Amino acid sequence: MKKLLLASLLTAATPLLLAETSPATSSDSFPVIEMFTSHLASKLDLTEAQRAQLKDILRQHQPRIAPLVDSLRTEQKAWFDYSRSATASTDEASDRIDRVLAAQKKLMLETADLRTDLRHVLNDSQLAKLDSLRSEADGHFSKLRKRIQAWLAQV
Q1: Comparing 27-31, 34-38, 58-62, 101-105, which segment has the lowest mean pLDDT?
Q2: Residue 122: helix, strand or coil by DSSP?
């Protein structure tokens, strides 16, 4: 289960974790970044130099990722609020969906840059371990998705 948590953190959760880290805090006070790097250090046997590099990378990306996450959350909330209204039209719905997708695309591109930077810090065996953890998580989420689909088919 902890392996799944690590793989999840490196994928979808990384931008959310960085968004929750307040840029107003001092540069030495990033508890979420510390938690994330500690978890990676334990799973991937990171050196102290690698931990420091990961922290620096996360701190560098945080100011760019946080507003993108906020923007995506705002657009998603606007979409959900609109979709519940009695006056929803196809044209406006399409426009709101396009805004959500545009915000999501920006966040995904920035997250891809973050992942690339993080992967440059790891050696070959650490990358193999990370990829293994990711494959394991993908399998878990695939099974979960199938169970949800089966449940929905029964409803």
Answers
A1: 27-31
A2: coil
- 37 CA to centre of own chain: 15
- CA dist 53 to 18, 50, 124, Å? 16, 5, 17
State pLDDT tens for residues 25-53. Answer: 444 445 777 787 787 788 888 899 998 99
Cα gap 53→71, rounded to integer Å: 28
Cα–Cα distances in Å, from 51 out to 41, 54, 55, 85, 118? Answer: 7, 5, 6, 48, 10
Q: With left for phi above 0 and alpha for psi between -120 and 50, is residue 149 left, alpha or beta?
A: alpha
In single-letter form, the type of residue at position 73 comes to R
Number of neighbours of residue 86 by Cβ within 10 angstroms = 4
| CA dist., res. 15 & res. 120, Å (int) | 18
Helix (H) or strand (E) holding 85: none
| pLDDT tens by residue, 11-29 | 444 555 555 544 444 444 4
